[in-house]
Design goal:
There is one protein chain. The protein has one domain. It contains 16 helices and no strands. α6 packs parallel to α9. It is globular.
Length: 423
């Protein structure tokens, strides 16, 4: 009888746990977080396979040049976003959805075309290592890739704003095509790596626009009212986001110039692997911003999000820290040299997560000036310390700069949180 009673209790708890799980997945915060997490896991996981194959198929020097090209692509797209990726989410529930989406996509697409043109004009005077962009065919393909990447990025932000993170996942699923494309393009050298990504973005953008048009009608229309209402928020977040994203995007170019092609490749692979750890904090942070924009309770969601991230973060760090050597060996024996950098980046993840949770709080309270100041400190510390430490410590110098920067940011964040009464 006691055994039967115990089995009944286990069954009841199991049912309760299952019911609780399904109930949690119906919650917009968790549902959106799950699809954002899956989308980013898929993207980073495929990215891992992409660079794994690239490292096997292409010489280390070619990989180093390709990382500079791809990072330049990312930087141009972020510059061209003009802060609309944040305004999409913040104002989608305050204005006509079609006008918000159409205006954001049209303006950022025009901006990306303009910035791509400027980049192609000046790049050959600055970076001789990627002088192949002097050739008209390569230059045209780079231009098209930038424009489609911008549309792809804004479409993904639109899915988030519409609380349609399932389509965000589908969007990232299509990006998986870039892995098999590496093989037939190997004859192009470093541009073969970039070409695989470019072709994939063109295909993914067409698919993304199709998915978006099923939800709403996107037109070539610019809503001046939305521009006026969101200008302060967009411009402030544009500056803030640019300060936040640009160090990681320009770092491969800096390392390429200071240390060489091989070191740029070693840095990029280690940094890409460490991104696996930061997926959960970034996904929960974005979901926190989305739900807060729809009026959901901030403090309650913050506590729930923080607990979920902690559960996911600890085992991720342990796996990366203890099996990092094995993971790097998959890329080739040369990449094991970046193990120390990978360890430092993994250990800094707690500080990175705390900063990522602080950003949506400031955005929801429309404290853009404070966010700009915080990201300016991050930008200055990370770039300044990297320049100082890269020469004596090689790529490990970036790891030290990264850790020191986020420790200082954590101290600043905790002081502000206490002052505002958030903790």
């Amino acid at each position: 009888m006691k055994i039967l009673h115990i089995l009944d209790c286990i069954k009841e708890k199991s049912v309760f746990s299952t019911d609780h799980l399904f109930t949690s997945l119906k919650d917009p915060l968790y549902r959106n977080s799950v699809f954002l997490l899956l989308g980013r896991l898929l993207n980073v996981g495929v990215g891992f396979l992409f660079w794994l194959m690239a490292a096997r198929l292409y010489p280390t020097e070619e990989v180093g040049v390709a990382t500079a090209l791809i990072s330049s692509l990312g930087l141009i797209v972020f510059i061209s976003s003009l802060g609309f990726n944040f305004s999409l989410i913040r104002f989608i529930n305050m204005n006509i959805k079609e006008n918000v989406l159409s205006t954001s996509i049209v303006i950022t697409t025009i901006a990306s075309a303009f910035m791509a043109t400027i980049y192609l004009v000046i790049v050959n005077d600055v970076l001789h290592s990627i002088s192949l962009l002097q050739k008209s065919g390569y230059a045209l393909f780079f231009f098209i890739t930038v424009v489609t990447n911008s549309m792809f990025f804004m479409s993904g932000e639109a899915f988030k704003a519409l609380r349609d993170t399932k389509d965000f996942f589908m969007q990232n699923l299509v990006l998986s095509v870039r892995v098999p494309l590496l093989l037939p393009l190997v004859f192009l050298g470093n541009f073969g790596i970039f070409g695989a990504i470019g072709v994939t973005y063109i295909v993914s953008t067409i698919f993304s626009i199709y998915l978006l048009n099923r939800r709403t009608n996107i037109t070539a229309k610019i809503d001046k009212g939305y521009l006026k209402d969101s200008f302060t928020f967009s411009s402030g977040n544009y500056i803030s986001n640019l300060l936040y994203e640009s160090p990681s995007l320009i770092m491969p170019t800096i390392i390429l110039s200071l240390l060489g092609k091989e070191e740029a490749a070693l840095y990029y692979i280690a940094f890409s692997i460490s991104n696996l750890i930061w997926i959960a904090p970034m996904s929960m942070s974005t979901s926190l911003f989305i739900e807060g924009s729809y009026g959901e309770g901030l403090k309650r969601n913050l506590i729930r999000s923080g607990g979920a991230v902690l559960i996911l973060l600890i085992p991720s760090i342990i796996i990366i820290y203890f099996f990092g050597n094995t993971i790097l060996q998959l890329f080739g024996k040369d990449y094991v040299e970046s193990l120390s950098l990978l360890h430092v980046l993994a250990l800094s993840s707690f500080f990175v997560a705390l900063h990522n949770f602080f950003v949506p709080i400031l955005n929801l309270q429309m404290k853009v000036k404070e966010l700009i100041k915080l990201n300016f400190i991050r930008f200055s510390l990370l770039i300044g310390l990297s320049y100082i430490l890269l020469t004596p410590y090689d790529i490990l110098g970036f790891g030290y700069a990264w850790m020191i920067t986020y420790v200082i940011l954590t101290v600043i964040t905790l002081r502000i949180s206490r002052k505002e009464g958030w903790i």
